[in-house]
Amino acid sequence: MVGFPNAKINLGLYVTSKRSDGYHDLVSCFYPVAWKEALEIIPSPSFSFSSSGLNVPGDSVSNLVVKAYELMQQKYNIPSSAIHLHKAIPMGAGLGGGSADAAFTLTILNQLYQLSLSAEELIHLSAQLGSDCAFFIHNTPCLATSKGEVLTPISSSLKGYVILLIHPGIHISTQQAYAGVKPKPIDVNLEALLKEAPSSWKHKLSNQFEEHLFIQFPEVAHIKQKLYDSGAEYASMSGSGSAVYGIFKDGHSFENMEWPGHYKIKVVSC
């Protein structure tokens, strides 16, 4: 069985406080986008995991796909499986690729072995793998609070727009990003703001990580400015990583926009 884990972007990202457990409380809108990779799982006499595409650092034991399989195997004694992941979403980019892989592993195993788990049960399982894994069970626009695992579906839509995603090849770890963030109360009604047109978001909607990461990585700040110079209605860094997106009106031409050859670039329709 094959699935296609997709990326997400953050429409606004506010870190409101540091928790006693060491995590942070945040407020954001997670929005799914069609930058996808491929995940295949089939029954097999023994377990195996392989990958292709982008290089996945570390050993397979630490991969979220493997952790998701092990969680399902421990709880439901599912059969041995052969898993192959074709990695296409850059890591450390703030696009949620690893979390999507984990969530899709749970979903595929549920279908493949006819476990009949509900969405609520899958969400509970996914929360054990990572704070934003649960979003990819919903996979619709959601207001995210707490650590990012408390999700409320909202009606935000970017229909009539296209999104240009730019990744400059810079890896920003979650630990690195949070080390410089200064929590503060959110000063906007995010859900209400997202009902306005993207053209009104520039001076209202923000990603709090930009404040310090743009100083450390000026190339990322340059991408955001270039997107605005190229006609973006709104531009922002996504999550706590280095990918930057621009929201353009549908039909916008990107032919004359030049980017360095090492950048990974993706245009997705909304």
List keywords for this structure.
alpha+beta, 4-stranded mixed beta sheet, 270 residues, 8 helices, Alpha-Beta Plaits, 2 domains, Ribosomal Protein S5, domain 2, 29% strand, globular
Structure, explained:
The structure is a single chain. Helix 2 crosses helix 3 (119-127) and helix 7 (210-216) packs across helix 8 (218-229). The two termini are 26 Å apart. The chain is an alpha+beta fold. The protein has 2 domains: 2-153, Ribosomal Protein S5, domain 2; 161-269, Alpha-Beta Plaits, CATH 3.30.70. The strands form 3 sheets. A 4-stranded mixed beta sheet has the order 1-4-6-5. It has helices at 64-76, 97-112, 119-127, 135-138, 174-179, 190-193, 210-216, 218-229, and strands at 2-3, 6-18, 24-36, 38-43, 48-53, 81-87, 142-145, 150-153, 161-167, 234-237, 244-249, 264-269. It has 8 helices and 12 strands.
Oligomerization state of this entry?
single chain
How confident overall, as mean pLDDT? 94
- The DSSP helix count reads 8
Any idea what the CATH architecture of the largest domain is?
Answer: 2-Layer Sandwich
Give the N-to-C terminal Cα separation. 26 Å
Main sheet summary: 4 strands, mixed
SSE order, one letter for each helix or strand = EEEEEHEHHHEEEHHHHEEE
Q: How much helical structure, as a percent, in the residues?
A: 25-40%
Helix- and strand-based class? alpha+beta
Number of strands: 12
Please tell me the total number of domains: 2
Rg, alpha carbons: 19 Å
Question: What characteristic shape results from the CA principal axes?
Answer: globular
Q: What name is given to the CATH topology of the largest domain?
A: Ribosomal Protein S5, domain 2
